[in-house]
Amino acid sequence: MAEEKQYINEKEMNLVGHLSELRNRLIVTAIVFIALFVVGFVYVEDIFNFFTKDLDFTLSITGLTDTVSVYITMAGLVAVIGTLPVLCLQVWLFIRPGLTKGEQRATLLYIPAIFILFIGGLVFGYMIFIQLIIPFLLSLNDGMFNEIFTYDRYFKFLFSVIIPFAIFFEIPVIAMFLTSLGILTPDFMRKTRKYAYLILVIVGAVITPPDFILQIAVAVPLIVLYEISIYLSVIIYRKRLKKHQEFMESDGGI
C-alpha cells in the first residue's frame, strides 16, 4: 500500500514537473513574441512601406482607429514570423528528454527547415499576389469605376493568399516527420496522389481569381512540392527500415 502511494506521488510530481516546464517554455515564447512585437511596432513604417512599395495605387483608411490597426497588423506579422523558430525550438526542448540521441539530432534539423519553408511560402505567395493577382484584378476595371483601396481589405486579401502558401510549403517537413513516426509511407502518398492533386488545384482556385492560367501558375508549384515530399518520404522510410533491420539483426544475435 505504501509503495503504491509512493508510486502515485512520484507520478503526480512528474506530471507537475512537466506542466511546470511546459509553462516555462510558453513564457519564453511569449516574451520573444512581445519583444518582436515591440520591434515591429517601432519599425512599422518601414514594414508598411515594404509591403506597399510595389503598388501602383495608394491605400486609404476610413476611420480614426485604422492607423492603430495598421500598427498592430504590421507588428503582429513580424512577431509571428520571428517567433516561429523559437516556438519550434521550445517544443523540441520539451520533448527532447524522451528522444534518443539520433532522434534528437534528426528532429533538431526540422526547426530551420520549418522556418525556411515558411518564409519561402510567404515570399512565393507575395510574388504571386503582386506580379499576377493584383495586375489581373486591376485589368478588369478598365476605367469603369473609381478605385478606392482601403488598407484593411487589401491586407486581408493579401494574407488570405500568402498564408496558405506558407502553410502548404511545410508539406515536405510534415511528410518527413510523419514518415519518421511510421504514420505515413511513400506508397500511401503515391496511391493518394490524384486526390492530393485535386485538393491542391482546388486550393489554388480558391485563393486566386477565376483565371485558368493564374490558377495553374499557383497549383503547379504546390504539386511540385507534393512530389518533393514523396521523394523525401522515401529517403526517411528507407532509413527507418534500415534501422529496424539492424535492430532485429542485433536482437537476434543476442
Describe, in plain words, how this protein is organized in 3D.
The chain crosses the membrane at residues 26-48, 68-95, 107-137, 157-183, 195-213, 219-237. InterPro entries: Sec-indep_translocase_CS, TatC. With 254 residues, this protein is mainly alpha-helical. It is built from ten helices and two strands. The longest helix has 42 residues, at 212-253. The two termini are 38 Å apart.
Number of helices: 10
Strand proportion: under 5%
Biggest sheet architecture: 2 strands, parallel
The poorly predicted ranges are: 4-9
- Rg of Cα set: 24 Å
Structural class: mainly alpha
Strand order of the largest sheet: 1-2
Organism: Virgibacillus kekensis
Transmembrane segments: 26-48, 68-95, 107-137, 157-183, 195-213, 219-237
Membrane topology: Multi-pass membrane protein
Keywords: Cell membrane, Membrane, Protein transport, Translocation, Transmembrane, Transmembrane helix, Transport
Fill in the keyword field for this structure:
254 residues, mainly alpha, two-stranded parallel sheet, 10 helices, 2 strands, 83% helix
Layout of strands and helices, then pairs:
Blueprint: H1 2-42, H2 44-52, E1 59-60, H3 66-95, H4 101-108, H5 110-141, E2 149-150, H6 151-168, H7 171-181, H8 186-191, H9 193-206, H10 212-253
Parallel strand pairs: 1-2
Helix pairs in contact: 1-3, 2-3, 3-5, 5-6, 7-10, 9-10
Organism: Virgibacillus kekensis
Transmembrane segments: 26-48, 68-95, 107-137, 157-183, 195-213, 219-237
Family: Belongs to the TatC family.
